[in-house]
Amino acid sequence: MRAKLLIIPIVSILAIMGVIIIRIITNKPPENTVLLAKNMLSEAQLEKSSKFANETFQEALMYYDSAMVEWRIQNDRILLFRNYQQVTAFAEKSFERSENAIKEAKENISNTEEIFEIRIDELGKKIKNFDENFNSFPMNKNHRDAIIKCNFLYSEGIHAYKNKNYTICKSKLDSAEIILNDVNNHYVERLITYFREYPKWNAMVVQTINHSKKNKSFAIIVDKLARELLIYKDGEVFKRFTVELGANWIGDKQQQGDKTTPEGLYKVIDKKQNGKTRYYKALLLNYPNEDDQKRFAINKKNGVIKQGVKIGNLIEIHGNGGTGIDWTDGCIALKDTDIDMVFSLCPVGTMVTIVGSTKSLNELAII
User: Fold this and answer.
1) Which of the listed residues 45, 75, 109 is the one where a domain comes to its end?
2) Pick from 109, 144, 174: which residue ends a domain?
3) How many helices (H) and strands (E) does the chain have?
4) Which residues contact 351 (CB under 8 A, 6 or more apart)?
5) What DSSP line would sit under 236-253, residue for residue?
6) Domain holding 247: CATH number?
7) How many domains does the chain have?
8) Could you tell me if residue 127 is left (phi over 0), alpha (psi between -120 and 50 degrees) or otherwise beta?
9) Is residue 278 classed as helix, strand or coil in its secondary structure?
10) Position 167 in a domain
11) Is 215 in the same domain as 101?
């Protein structure tokens, strides 16, 4: 009889725990919905909606701001009691108002010359924005050729506009915009996929800073996207340096010869100078570490990596940098004057953390 009585509370407890777990798993922030609202709001701004459809645009802006405020409120609550439904609702309303603002703005812009002046100006901004955000990305030949063609068509469109040939102007601008959107969407998607690793990057960065603070020591953090090497001292940023990376730097290093700079927690195991390195001075890292070797073995077993391929080694922070382009086989290159300082400050054993970015996509505001 007692055993039966015990079963009921246990079942109840398990049921409650199940509900809690399901609640935690399913109650996630609507990141994609908010991102879509943000992008549509930016598109509305680019379409001059703040000028030609201001009332609707301000509503879209108000709903987006409300979504962000509500998001922060929910994030401050205990995980189990967070509810992002209102965030989703505000974001969806912002998206809808932005779409309406774009339509209204286009309808309200009736003057032909003004239309083309706006198009030329905004497409120029889009081209510049793409260049600033993605020019440093490893890009295949087809995409680079497409961007060259886009710039050429854009220039032809401007020339046609100045000659008041609006039909040709529209055709050139339309073609340029189609090409730009296609390439831009590809790299935005690639960037979003890459940033799925951000929680892991952030955890490593926090661990490194805490290690530096706790041990009153120097530590190195490399931010691949920002092209920065940061030296921490006692948990605070001490120095910043510009770096160059592997020519195919996006993602974690998978194998020898992929020209990708690895990501993970490492340490300096040797310091080379006086002819012991061909790159002036170098700090040798313990790549591949245990995590790298395990991942390599799993990928090889699963056929992600071909048999006979090696994992690679000799990843260094070294000199001979300052070229302005990514050129290494996976190492981190600095100007000789910068490696002099890094070399002098960081002894063998210094913690070195390499991540895709120290900031989230939302903080970077790239897309």
Assistant:
1) 109
2) 109
3) 12, 8
4) 208, 211, 212, 217, 219, 220, 265, 266, 267
5) EEEEEEE-B-BTT-SS--
6) 2.40.440.10
7) 2
8) alpha
9) coil
10) no
11) no
Tell me, what's the pLDDT at 115?
83
Q: pLDDT digits over 123-143, tens only?
A: 999 999 999 888 888 888 999
Residue 326's nearest CA partner among 131, 137, 143 is: 137
Question: What's the whole-number mean pLDDT along residues 90-112?
Answer: 86
Q: Give yes or no: residues 234 and 360 share one domain.
A: yes
Whether residue 170 lies inside any domain: the answer is no
Task: Say yes or no: 221 and 332 in one domain.
Answer: yes
In a domain? residue 161: no
What CA–CA distance (Å, rounded) separates 60 from 97? 5
Question: Which distant-in-sequence residues (6+ apart) come within 8 Å of 146 by Cβ?
Answer: 179, 182, 183
| Per-residue pLDDT tens digits for 188-221 | 999 999 999 999 999 999 999 999 999 999 999 9
In 3D space, the residue among 217, 191, 245 whose CA is nearest the CA of residue 352 turns out to be 217
Are 104 and 209 found together in one domain?
Answer: no
The answer to whether residue 12 scores a pLDDT higher than 90 is no
pLDDT band at 10 (very low <50, low <70, confident <90, very high): low
pTM exceeds 0.85, yes or no: no
Copy the structure tokens of residue 270.
């040797």
Per-chain mean pLDDT for the chain: 88
Q: Tell me which DSSP letter residue 272 carries.
A: E
SS3 284: strand
Cβ-contact 299, 254 below 8 angstroms:
yes
CB 127 within 8 A of CB 146: no
Is position 221 within any domain?
yes
Domain residues for the domain of 356 are 197-364
Please check whether residue 303 is in contact with residue 325, taking contact to mean a CB–CB distance below 8 angstroms: no
With a CB cutoff of 8 Å and minimum separation 6, the contacts of 210 are 235
Range with the lowest mean pLDDT among 12-26, 39-53, 267-281, 351-365? 12-26
Would you tell me the crossing angle of helices 112-134 and 166-194 to the nearest 10 degrees? Answer: 30
* Structure tokens belonging to residue 197: 């690793």
Tell me the pairing of strands 316-318 and 282-285. antiparallel
